[in-house]
Every structure is written in C-alpha cells, then in structure tokens.
Amino acid sequence: MTEQEPDLEQLETDLLAALETTAGLDGLDAVRVHALGKNGVITGLLKTLGGMTPEQRQVEGPKINGLRSRLADAIAAKKAALETADLDARLASETLDLSLPPAAAPQGTVHPVSQVMDELAEIFADLGFAVATGPEIEDDWHNFTALNIPASHPARAMHDTFYFPENQQRDGKPTLLRTHTSPVQIRTMTSQEPPIRIIAPGRTYRSDSDATHTPMFHQVEGLVIDRDIHMGHLKWTLETFVKAFFERDDIVLRFRPSYFPFTEPSAEVDVGYSLENGRRIIGGDPNAEEGGWMEILGSGMVNRHVIEACGLDPDEWQGFAFGCGIDRLAMLKYGMDDLRAFFDGDLRWLRHYGFSALDVPTLSEGVGR
Amino acid sequence: MKFTVSWLKDHLDTDADLDGILDTLTAIGLEVEGVENPGEKLADFRIAKVISAAKHPNADKLQLLTVDTGEGDPVQVVCGAPNARAGMTGVFAAPGTYVPGIDMTLKPAKIRDVESFGMMCSERELELSDAHEGIIDLGEDSGAEVGEAYAHWAGLDDPVIDIAITPNRQDCMGVRGVARDLAAAGLGTLKPLQVPDIEGEGAADIAIRTDDPEGCPAFFGRTVSGVMNGASPAWMQKRLRAIGQKPISALVDITNYIMIDHGRPLHVYDRAKLGAALFARRASDGENVLALNGKSYRLDATMTVIADDEGVHDIGGIMGGEHSSVQPETTEIVIECAYFDPETIALTGQRLGLASDARTRFERGVDPAFLDDGLAIATQMVLDICGGSASEVVRAGTPPEGTKTLRYDPQLCATLGGLDVPIDRQRASLESLGFTVEGDGPFTVTVPSWRRDIDGAPDFVEEVLRLERFDSIPSVALPRAEGVARPTASPEQKRERTVRRAAAARGLNEAVTWSFISQDEAALSGDSSDSGAPWALANPISEEMKVMRTSMIPGLAAAAKRNADRGAASIQLFEVGRRYLEDAEHPTLGLILAGARSPRHWQGGGAPFDAFDAKAEALAILDAAGAPVDKLQLFGETSGLYHPGRSGRLCLGPKNTLAEFGELHPATLKALDLDGPAMAAEIFLDAIPMPKATGGHMRAAYAPPALQAVTRDFAFLIDADAPAGDLLRAVKNAEKQHLAEARIFDIFEGEHVPEGKKSVAIELTLQPGERSFTDEELKAISDTVVAAAQKAGGELRG
To answer: Quick one: which residues bind Mg(2+) (chain A) (predicted)?
Structure first.
C-alpha cells in the first residue's frame, strides 16, 4: 500500500485559517492542542519522521519542523493579540471618577508662640546660649529681692503681681506668679558656675487685662555672665538676634538709657520700623515717612547687687541680661494684631497663624516661615 | 511728666529747637512719650473786634455783628452769644476754619435768611474749657491786635512735652531737674536758681514738731496770715492747664506748680482748722482720715501722718486731709515742707492703694537739701499772689544727709560700658550733672543730694554713657566658645519639642490656654476627697482665673466649647504646658477630641471620636516621647473628668502613670456646657523615664534575619468582660526567642461563641534563627503560647 503523502501546505492553510477565526484564548488553546498537543496533527507528523529513511527524513524533516515552528509563532502572536485585546477591554471598563476629592489627612498646627520659642532657641544656640527654665510659681526672693527690688521699691508696684495666700510660703517667703522671666537669671546663677550663656523663654503673669495686655503672656530672658563682657557685647548680641529673627539686614536698633533695678547701666532698645505694602514691618528706614521706633527689649549690665545676691564675686564676674515679650515678637514678625487671640484656641486662628509640624526652624533653612 | 517748652526755658538757656530738645531727652534716658502743640489746631483763629451789633431781623436771640478781622472789609457775622456787643475784642473763625469744639469746618451760611461769614467763638468751641455762656471777651486792655493769631497771643503756641521718668530719676520729676540734665547733655545752660530770702515776722503761731523721726525726719514750716485765696494768676493757670492740671485756687495751684517746677511736694493747711500744734507721728491702728480725694482711709501704726491733738490732717507725703484743706475764705495758713522716708511712703501707699503725685516723688526720694529753698520759694509765691505776712520758719528735725562719696575708676567706662571715654571728658560730664569729682586715677566722687539713686561705680558709667549717648558704644561680637558646639536644649526640652510636633503631625492643633482656671473647673478633675487645687490666687483677676490648673483638660475643653459654638465640626486641640501640683509644676501634653473624627465624606467620615482615638493619640505621643510603649500596662480608675468605663491610665508599673485617656464624663461635659461625646488625654511628660544615654552615635551592627518569618493564627475564648489586652500581653510574654510580634486581628462575640465569652484572634509572627522551624519546634512554641493564654484565662478555640 502506498501511503498517501500528507498535504502539508493544505494542513498549514487550514490550521492558520482556524487560528484566524479563533476569538478567544480558549479557542486558541484548542487549535494549539489540535496541532501541537500530544496527539496533535503536527505532533503526529513529527512522530512519522522516526520511521523514515535518512534520505526521506532529510527531505521531510525540515518541512514538518518548519511547519511546526511557523505555527507555534503564529499561535504566540495570536495569543499576544488576544491578550492585548482582553486587557484593553478590561481597562475600558475599569474607570474611576477622579474628579472626586480624596479624603485628606488632618493637618495639625504648632502655635506661633511655640514656633517663635523654637526660633529663638535656634538663633541663640548659634551664639552658644542654652535654654534654661524655672518655676512659674515663684517666691518673692527670686522674683524681686534677689533682683534688687526690695519690698518698698517703687518698681514692685509697677509689677501687678498675682500672689498666693500668705500661708502658702516657700522657704519662709511669700509665693507669687512670676512677673517676668528674670528669676531664671537668679536660679541659673545660683546653680551653675560661670561662664553662663542662657535664654529662658516661658510664661509670665501680671494682673493686667485690657486690649493690649493679658494676665498671662510670654517672655524670653537672656543672660551672659563671664569675665570681660561689656555693653558692646550686649549691643552686638541684640543686633545679631533681632536681625536673625526678622531675617533682615536693614534693621537698626536704638539704645536708650533706662532703669531696671537688676541692671546698671540699663538700656531700653527700640527697633526701627517702616511701612511696606501698607503694613508696618520691622526694618527699613525709621526716619522715612510712616517709619518710626518701637520699644521691643529691656536690657543692661547685670547689677552688682544681683551678682552678689547669687553668691558670685562681682569684681570677678560681670555680664548682661535682656528681656523681651515673645507674643509681641510673634505679632511683629507674623502680623497678628490681637494679643487676646493667642490664648483663645480658635481653630480658625490657629490654622491661619499656626505652623506645620514640619516647619522646624533651622539655621540652614531659615528660622522664619 | 508733662511740661511746656516755655516752662523749660525758665530754667534752661538754650537756642535748641523743639526737635533737638526731644531728641536729646530720649537719648539721655528721659523718654519722650508725646509732644503736642495746642496752638497748632488753633492756628487759624484770629483776634477780631466787633464794630457794631444790631438785632437780627428774624430772631430775638440773635444779633448781627460787623466784625473787623484785620483782613479786608469788615464782615457780617450772625451771633447768638448774649455777651456780644460793639467794641468788644474776641476770637474769630473765618469760613474754612476747623472748629475743634464742635468738630466742624465752617462755611458761609444763611441763618434765618441773613448771611453769616464766620463765627465769634466761645472757649468750649476752642476746647480751652467748658465755658459756653458767651463768646470769648479779651477785655479792654488785652493789648491784643486785630488780625493777630489768637493762639500766639494767648501763649497757647507752646508745645507740651510728655516724658516718662524711670523710678530712679526723682530729680527729673521737676522741670528744673530736666533742664539740668539737658544742660549737662550740651543743650544749653542751666539758669541760676533765685531763692528768695524771707526772714519772716515773728514766730509761727503754731507749734511744729516731728514725733516720728523715722517716718518724717524733718518737718519745716511757717505760717502766713492775711492771705487772699482767690484764683491763681492767668500765667500759672495756663501752664497748669497745658499739662493737664485743673486750677483750683491760688494756694493749691502754688503747691502744684512748685511740685512740677522743682519736684518738691508741699502742703498748705488752713490754720483756723488746726489746734495749737501740728506734728508728725505714727497713725494708730484703725484711725481714719477723710482725704482730699473725698475717700476715707483707715490707717495703721506703720503709717506716718501729720496731725494735731484732734486728729489726722494729712497722710504724710501722700495726700492731705479734707478737714484742714484751704478754702476760698481761708486767711491763715501753714505751709509744710517736710522730708518723708521713701520706704515708709512706698509701703503706706501700697497698703492704702493710694497713688498721688506727692507719693510718686516722696517714695523715690526728694532732694533732702531742698527743704529750706522749697519753703522759701513757696512763701514768696504765696506773698506775691495771695498777700499776707509770713512768720519765721520752724525747723523740726533734720533731713538725712543727701550727699555721699563714692569711688569710681573711670576705666570701668570701657570695661563695663564698652566705650573708652577720656578721663577729662568723664570728669566734665559728671561735674555738669552736679557731681564733685576729685582725683585723677580712680575718682572720688561726691554725689549731689538730689541723686539718691547713685550707689555704685556702674551708676557713674551710666551717667557718662548717657551723656555720650548709648548709640556711640561700638558693637563687639561675643567670643565664640571653643570646641564643638553642643546641643543647647536639655533632654526635657527636646522631649517637649518632639511631642509638640508629633501631636501637630497627627492632625492636632496646638492651643495656649490660661494657666489659671475657675474653682469649679478645677474641682471637676478631683475625686471626692480632693476637690480643690493646691494653688489658688489670693488676688485673682476674676473668678474664672482663680486657681492654677491641675489638669490641662478644663482649659482645652473650654476652648473646644468655644470652637463648637463657632460651628467647628471636628475639634482636635492640644496644649503643651504645666500642671501646678502641690509639689511641683509638671510638664504635660493635654489633648481634646470633640465632634466628628473627620468631616463627612463620600469615602466615609462623619463618625464621632471614640475612646480609642484618645488612646491612639496617647500611645503615639508616648512613643514619640521615647516611652517604652510595649511595656505599658492599662489600669482603670482615672480622674473624675473621665467616663469611668471608658477611660484608662497607661502605666509603667501600678504607681507610675504616664498617660490618662478616655471619654469625658457626662458630668464634665455638662459642667463645661460642651455637647458630647468628647475624648481627652493627658501625657505626663516628666513621668516618662529618660532613655539611657548611649554615649555615642553608633547603632548596633545590622544583622537582618537570614530566613523569612512565618505567621500562625490562634483564636482564644475569654470572658466577655475580660481585657483582651491582658491576653495579648500574656501571649507576647510567653516566648521571647522567636516571637517577633503578636497582633489582635479580630474580636468576635455571638454565633458559635458561648454566652458570656468573646473570641480573640491573634496573629503571631515567628522569626526563625539560623535554620527553618521544624514541625516540632513550631508545635512547642504553639504549646507555650496556648499554655500562657490559658493561664491568662484564654481557652484555645477548637
């Protein structure tokens, strides 16, 4: 019997046609099994090669293998096309209305007073000042007497002091809410060997309440005690601080003789302001139209009596001290106009004037925001 | 203190202009607080003469005046003043003039059909006084010229300067002292003071003595008889008015004038109201006096008074008494010029809560060498203005020695003041201020009697520097500390900064609330045995700000309430501050969560906060603060602020509470009028142990596990009311070597769970070491965990 020669061309044509009409991946697989599966037609043809003479095989082998290879390529190509079509179809159905706003994580804020305290700490750290603290409930020795303000001193009457009842004494001394951060000077000098460079920010209290005064407010104190410190250092330090704080070089300070019992000589410090874009800003020419001076600091060389009261020898140690309102610094820098709003906790105000948690003042990024 | 430029020039010979005076005042420490020229706003008012006056045709009470204004033809003015008449000289305002007293700019007008071109003015219209009965009548012999500026003629063109006097500068609480300082600063020459020498006739007809040499070391006085106490002269009234003092009567005005002129308070008594002797003594406890301000004061034995045998006539050096005050009919007077002890005056003034110009000066220490001069100047003025004849002076006691001698090394100006001023220049400065300087190296300086404030070498530095002006001190950079810059914040400060920013990063807004709260608010946090806060102010500004807070929550809750009232839907506030307890002030972070956790949103939101939100914040902040959060135990029994079943304390051991959190008690909400529910937490920052310093920056060597971790799930049944946290803790502690994490991933009660029980599903993460777990090892771990859970009351679910 003569075996009929399989018509490879016809077979290829048929298989490619079947492939062409296949619509899905399942159909594609059926074609693959039919042609190249274990019992597939091409697999069957390949099996016949074993029974052939070497000469026949030389002729038929490439034909059958060529067929198999072309078909496998065609199947792969078809598969890729079908998969792309499938994906396109799926993507076409997978749409989102991205005009919708996503839920936002709540944004918290840091209070301007805290932010300014951090700014001060950063500026003064660069000058070698550490941050010191002290109690807000003080005794009258630390708040007054040691600061050269004896009981009869007129300056005591100028401090509208909150007192605690007479039976609440501490070490036999009347207790009160500190009227300034200056007692931290005393606490530092009595507990620490000079040289000393500190700032002491914190809450202070005076029995005063009107549009521009609140019974609680914030001050920062500065103290330098060393051997050869004089008023020139005081001027430089305050100029450096104020310029760094407001981040302007065109700031001028004016030092005026004044009086504080705990410093001698004493100076009040005015800063020049000017009008920019309709708002009063620190810096610029104070002598220009709409310009002027405003008082921002009290300062002076630490009084010998104070150094003595702290157990130090005033012939060996001398230095300067200064004090300044933090709330006011914040208002002047960031433009708030109402002190009372600082202490109201109004979320709208806090979000308007507050700072992001990430706004940490640094020297490299600038201390202001 | 206020004075006018012309007044200053009584004492200071200067050609400096106003700006020069103002600038120098501030530069030498007499800070100018204000300057006003009352003449400026009256610059347009002219002196004018009424030529004729006729009745208004259409109004009974109006007149038609023809007024010569000195410019052009006379003008017609309609005038309603009853005293307007032909021939009088007055003050005219032309159309276009702003009249301050009626706050109006004049325009030509028709009044009852008759045209009026300007107006004749009253004192009130010029804001000179309240007088409005008629127009200003300058009188026959005023010497005023028609057309002249009224302000100039009236001496109103005299700027009033207001300066702030620091408490150490009593010497500048008189115009003469200010002039002395300005002269020293190079602004002119101090005119010599003319002190009259009045011997007086005969002895005073009253005995004067001091029985309290401590409180009143010196009491000088004399009588003047036959005085007429009318109005003080116009020049004096003008000056007193210009500086805001109301003229009262000649005698009172004279004492006020000398107080401003020389900083020397005096008192004048009506002799007729006094007994045979006038003397200084201590008051007796409970003694009363009606003072010149119309108020009665209850005195005590620490206070010095001037009295006669009948009673107190003067709270010495502070305020006179009503009874013996001078009246228009007074004819016999006693003039007192005394020295009162500054400390006594200060304490008396504080105790009585009584402020006066005299007290301000005496408590700062008036010039003790000026008693005779002050008395002589006053006597002369009384004689000149009120007439009469003066007695001899009575001098009881002696004022303290005013001068003192101090050493001053002029080098100090450079070493303390930072400005190297040549010695001769320093000497000249000090001498110009009245100091006597001897020596060439270290000076021996005699301090003048009026400078009680000078008590040491640094004071001389200040005197020299202020005349040099502080602006001339060169700035010198602070030397940089050697070595590497160290952190300047303490660990406690770093912790406060960290938790603040951690809380803000979690969406909370930092508030700053008052440290003081009301007694009622304070009581909310206490349990029944301790309802009060330990620190309550003796003199609070109001009941709402009376006690120092022992909890941050009431203040924050009040802030939350204000926000809720403003319509805030979601309130998340925190504060870093102190709680004021008996022993100390404790740094604390308090927070409050009220309203919705997040706003209503299409993805969810709008749900209210619950106690777990407060716990989450507490744990996150504790973690940021460096607390060992894994080791914390939960205890109940929170403060009275909280819902007892929905609050807890996070503790390290039963005694050390690091944080308290939970839902606020309905009673708390009700008391604060806050719509609930609201959550709160307090993190007690100083209760958190400080992490041990590692002594360097090196981290432990990095050794990632070689093999992947495996997870195993367990479900345990425990009593429904038992804390699942305890079970979790027991499981976590069961195995230390391999157990990396244990997490509750499901809590279930209901179907297939026995009544009264709940199912707690826990996922364990197990980390193999060098080689993978064998089945035996996994079973062993599993058995250990199950056993530990069982001990904690957990039964493995089948």
So the answer is: 264
Q: Average pLDDT of chain A? A: 91
Is B68 found in the same domain as B135? yes
Cβ–Cβ pairs < 8 A, chains A and B: 256
Residue B486 covered by a domain = no
Backbone angles phi, psi at B471, to 5 degrees: -65, -15
Q: Closest approach of chain A CAs to the CA of B248, in angstroms?
A: 29
Contacts of A229 in chain B (CB under 8 A): 478
Whether residues B289 and B337 share a domain: the answer is yes
Look up residue B62 and give its amino acid: L
Residue ranges of A 312-351 with Cβ closer than 8 A to chain B = 318, 342-348, 350-351
- Same domain, yes or no: B311 and B219: yes
Residues B414 and B532 in one domain: no
Q: CB-side exposure of B1: number of CA atoms within 13 Å?
A: 30
Q: What pLDDT sits at residue B41?
A: 84
* Segment B771-795 mean pLDDT: 92
In this structure, the number of other CB atoms found within 10 A of the CB of residue B196 comes to 13
| pLDDT tens string B704-716 | 888 999 999 999 9
ipTM of the complex: 0.88
Residues 6+ apart with CB under 8 A from B527: B639, B640
Phi, psi dihedral angles at B209 (to 5 degrees) = -155, 165
Do residues B167 and B299 both lie within one domain?
no
Give the domain-ending residue among B397, B413, B430.
B397
Q: Considering only CB atoms, which chain B residues are within 8 Å of A207?
A: 539, 541
226-265 of B, contacting A, C-beta below 8 A: none
What is the CATH classification number for the domain harbouring B244? 3.50.40.10
Quick one: closest CA in B to A113, which residue? B512
Binding-site residue numbers of A for Mg(2+) are 264
Q: Domain holding B765: CATH number?
A: 3.30.70.380
Residues B455 and B367 in one domain: no
pLDDT at A35: 86
Residue B664 sits in the same domain as residue B586: yes
- Residue B30 sits in the same domain as residue B46: no
Q: What's the domain count of chain B?
A: 6
How many whole angstroms separate alpha carbon B96 and alpha carbon B93?
8
Question: How close does chain A come to B742, measured CA to CA in Å?
Answer: 28
Q: How far apart are CA B721 and CA B758, in angstroms?
A: 8
pLDDT for B574 beyond 50:
yes
E-strand spans in chain A? 130-131, 137-139, 175-177, 196-205, 216-226, 253-260, 263-276, 279-282, 292-302, 318-325
> Who among B456, B562, B580 is closest to A344 (CB)?
B562
**Interfacial A residues in 232-261 facing B (CB < 8 Å):** 232-237, 239-240, 254-259
Contact A239 B475 (CB under 8 A): yes
Q: Nearest CA of chain B to the CA of A271: how many Å?
A: 13
Among the CATH numbers 3.40.50.620, 3.30.930.10, 3.40.50.1820, 4.10.240.10, which is that of A110-353?
A: 3.30.930.10
B362 Cα to chain A: minimum distance (Å)? 11
Q: Out of B166, B342, B584, whose CB is closest to A152?
A: B342
How many residues are there in chain B?
798
What digits encode the pLDDT tens for the residues B726-765? 999 999 988 888 899 999 999 999 888 999 999 999 999 9
What does pTM read for this prediction? 0.86
Which residue on chain A is closest to B347 by alpha carbon?
A152
Q: Per-residue pLDDT for B142 more than 80?
A: no
Annotated binding site of A: 264
Range of the domain at B446: 405-472
- Domain final position from B344, B372, B397: B397
